[in-house]
């Protein structure tokens, strides 16, 4: 029996929205750790292939529509890092992925992660995201002719379809950049080598400062909401299997530059409704269609990635900042929702957003540590 057209359309929309809305952020992350063009293209291809394999495997295995995503907060965290090279970053990616896989197998680790107050974890995420959204205003003031048109497109499209607003902004960025000479000349030749091996370097400070926060934001800001979306649509998520598969795949594809993959939340909702397939028991097949789309997106990376990299850095930064406004809002609301953890969340947010680094360890780790210490002191006071 052929699959309904609605299943193809849902998978296409979910994949294109996920790709177009945050690809600029992934490229910014690659630039922050000094990845060259071949390594950046490999990063994008690897994370696309990883998502595709994981979505197809989990959906067909568990007969649940499992839609995976790359870790958008994780990409923001990487993009905010300083003093980390691509080999150290790959070591941190492998470490974070192994922690995700261990969370599926080791219950004490699972309990330790879930014991971190939501406000503190959200405060760390908000602190990571804030500088990116603030950069939108900075670039708008510095290069208004280049930046303001795509901001205008973003807000106009957002009035009618928020999911497509960032994608529309990216497309308008292409138009502005290539129409008014802001884009760098494109190379006539295309390198069709998709994957490039990148040897990991395991640096203790980077594992603490980048690997641990990457693991935590992926778990708290992607996996847990993704499982909640499945439950809200009447499915019981296979948590252990999902964490195991995404952890193992993330660890393998990290050797080709990919950062962690995780459960999708917003884009997953597109693939779970009654309009996708009237039979809930057949809806898992959308994961297979979704996987095929991501394979094609990964294969097209040698064309898409250089085109985006040819745009002025200001456009890439603004598109990334606009894409992170909704996650920032969600993180801030979650950080300060519970009165008992607001002070700890504020401490986490302030230290993380400051960008302070000490002993070679980045601000996200120190923000998390500060928030947990404040939370412990508050807990002792109330006993």
Which structural class do you get from the secondary structure elements? mainly alpha
- Report the portion of residues in β strands: under 5%
- DSSP summary: helix tally: 17
Q: Name the poorly predicted regions.
A: none
Distance between the termini: 62 Å
Strand order of the largest sheet: 1-2
Set down the secondary structure blueprint.
Blueprint: H1 5-32, H2 37-62, E1 68-70, H3 72-79, H4 86-105, H5 107-115, H6 118-142, H7 144-160, H8 162-179, H9 204-232, H10 239-254, E2 261-263, H11 266-270, H12 286-299, H13 301-309, H14 313-323, H15 325-335, H16 342-354, H17 363-382
Antiparallel strand pairs: 1-2
Helix pairs in contact: 1-2, 1-3, 1-8, 1-12, 1-14, 2-10, 2-12, 2-13, 3-9, 4-5, 4-9, 4-10, 6-7, 6-9, 6-14, 6-15, 6-16, 6-17, 7-8, 7-14, 8-14, 9-17, 16-17
């Amino acid at each position: 029996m052929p699959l309904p057209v609605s299943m193809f359309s849902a998978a296409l929309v979910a994949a294109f929205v996920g790709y177009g809305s945050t690809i600029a952020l992934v490229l910014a992350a690659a630039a922050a750790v000094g990845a060259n063009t071949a390594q950046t293209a490999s990063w994008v291809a690897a994370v696309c292939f990883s998502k595709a394999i994981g979505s197809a495997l989990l959906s067909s295995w568990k007969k649940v529509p499992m839609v995976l995503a790359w870790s958008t907060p994780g990409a923001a965290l990487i993009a905010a890092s300083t003093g980390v090279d691509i080999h150290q970053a790959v070591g941190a990616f492998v470490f974070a992925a192994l922690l995700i896989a261990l969370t599926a197998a080791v219950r004490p680790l699972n309990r330790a992660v879930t014991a971190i107050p939501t406000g503190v974890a959200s405060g760390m995420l908000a602190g990571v995201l804030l500088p990116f959204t603030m950069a939108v205003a900075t670039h708008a003031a510095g290069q208004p002719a280049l930046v303001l048109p795509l901001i205008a497109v973003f807000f106009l499209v957002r009035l009618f379809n928020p999911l497509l607003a960032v994608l529309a902004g990216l497309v308008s960025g292409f138009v502005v950049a290539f129409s008014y000479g802001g884009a760098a000349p494109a190379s006539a030749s295309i390198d069709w080598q998709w994957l490039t091996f990148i040897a990991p370097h395991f640096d203790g400070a980077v594992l603490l400062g980048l690997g641990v926060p990457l693991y935590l934001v992926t778990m708290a800001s992607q996996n847990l909401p993704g499982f909640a979306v499945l439950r809200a649509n009447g499915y019981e998520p296979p948590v252990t299997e999902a964490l195991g598969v995404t952890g193992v795949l993330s660890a393998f594809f990290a050797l080709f530059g990919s950062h962690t993959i995780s459960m999708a939340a917003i884009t997953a909702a597109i693939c779970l409704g009654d309009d996708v397939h009237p039979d809930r028991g057949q809806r898992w097949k959308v994961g297979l269609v979704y996987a095929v789309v991501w394979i094609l997106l990964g294969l097209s990376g040698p064309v898409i990635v250089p085109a985006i990299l040819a745009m002025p850095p200001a456009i890439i930064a603004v598109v990334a900042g606009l894409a992170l406004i909704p996650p920032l809002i969600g993180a801030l609301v979650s950080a300060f929702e519970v009165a008992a953890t607001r002070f700890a969340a504020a401490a986490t947010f302030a230290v993380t957003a400051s960008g302070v680094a000490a002993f070679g360890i980045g601000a996200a780790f120190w923000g998390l540590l500060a928030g947990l210490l404040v939370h412990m002191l508050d807990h002792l006071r109330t006993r």
